Amino acid sequence: MRYLILSDIHANVTGLEAALAAVEGKWDRAICLGDVVGYGPDPNAVVDKIRSLDAISIRGNHDKAGSGLEDAADFNPVARAVAHWTREKLTPENLDYLLKLPTGPIQLDGMALVHGALRDEDEYVFTQAQALEGLLEAPLPVTFFGHTHLQGGFILDETNVEVVRLKVPPGVGSAKIDIADGKTYLLNPGSVGQPRDGDPRAGFAIAELSSHSVEFWRVPYNVAAVQERMSRFGLPEPLIARLAFGR
After folding, report:
1. Across all residues in the chain, what is the average pLDDT?
2. Overall average pLDDT of the 215-226 stretch
3. What is the SS3 assignment for 133?
4. What does the CA dihedral 54, 56, 58, 64 come to, rounded to 10 degrees?
5. CATH number at residue 150
6. Which pLDDT tens digit goes with each residue over 137-182?
7. Integer Cα distance of 132 and 19 in angstroms
8. Pair 190, 197: CB distance under 8 Å
9. CA of 53: how far to CAs of 28, 30, 96, 97, in Å?
10. Which domain holds residue 74?
11. Closest Cα partner for 184 from 115, 128, 122, 146?
């Protein structure tokens, strides 16, 4: 089974559609690690698409804030403003979908799926030290997580934590890592809708654990079109500008 691993789409339907078009026919089942909404201009279009894919999904912190499940009090003012805007725009059906998203971690076909960290869905995992706890306590050899918008992750080999370093070629491209027996993996597919690793292309992954491999993909999309919609809807300028830089 080849799983399409999506995360942090953040209401960017243009990025999502570009990603799906690039890998059409290359995957069997879709997974979403949360943050379907937030930041971007297309909350209903993205939720509609994820629902149509019948994706196996868990919730992210922006899904909780955008649906009103949480009040976004701990968000910065820019993120909070978009969470409130999202709440006003969601259709009743899409609001209900977000409200009912399960909390990670969940286990599926040899993988654990979380939004932030295994112990705390809202915790960020940026560093090797932060990753170590999750790697040591992981219920399965491979855990996929999102939240940081940074494609890559960490590998535990006995007591050494290695950072996954990727070189994805320009344009539509991918980089593959092999899943080795005896190691534990904490892998982030990247952000479809708002990357923050200096590469503005949509990021995601395709996992085929039966073949011991994970492909990390990057796909360019029409950033200017998304920025135009954000501007038209009055979304905050910092969020508009950062899309072009992947920051």
Report:
1. 96
2. 98
3. helix
4. 0
5. 3.60.21.10
6. 999 999 999 999 999 999 999 879 999 989 999 999 999 999 999 9
7. 31
8. yes
9. 10, 7, 17, 14
10. 3-242
11. 128
Q: Which two tokens stand for residue 226?
A: 């998304």
With a CB cutoff of 8 Å and minimum separation 6, the contacts of 159 are: none
Q: Please check whether residue 247 lies inside any domain of the structure.
A: no
Q: Structurally, how many domains does the chain consist of?
A: 1
Both tokens of 81, joined, read 């403003």
Residue from 150, 83, 140 nearest 116 by CA: 150
Alpha-carbon distance of 99 to 83, in angstroms, equals 14
> Is the distance from CB of 57 to CB of 50 less than 8 angstroms?
yes
- According to DSSP, the residues that pair with 187 across neighbouring strands are 144, 153
d(Cα 34, Cα 36) in Å, to the nearest integer? 6
184 assigned to some structural domain: yes
Residue 112 has pLDDT above 90, yes or no: yes
Residues 92 and 115: beta-carbon distance below 8 Å:
no
Helix axes 13-22, 223-232, angle to 10 degrees: 160
Instruction: Give the separation between CA 83 and CA 151, rounded to whole angstroms.
Output: 24
Tokens of 158: 């006995």
Q: Kindly state the DSSP code that residue 105 receives in the 8-state scheme.
A: P
Q: Which among 62, 7, 2 has a CA at the least distance from the CA of 187?
A: 7
In a domain, 181, yes or no: yes
Q: Is residue 179 part of a domain?
A: yes
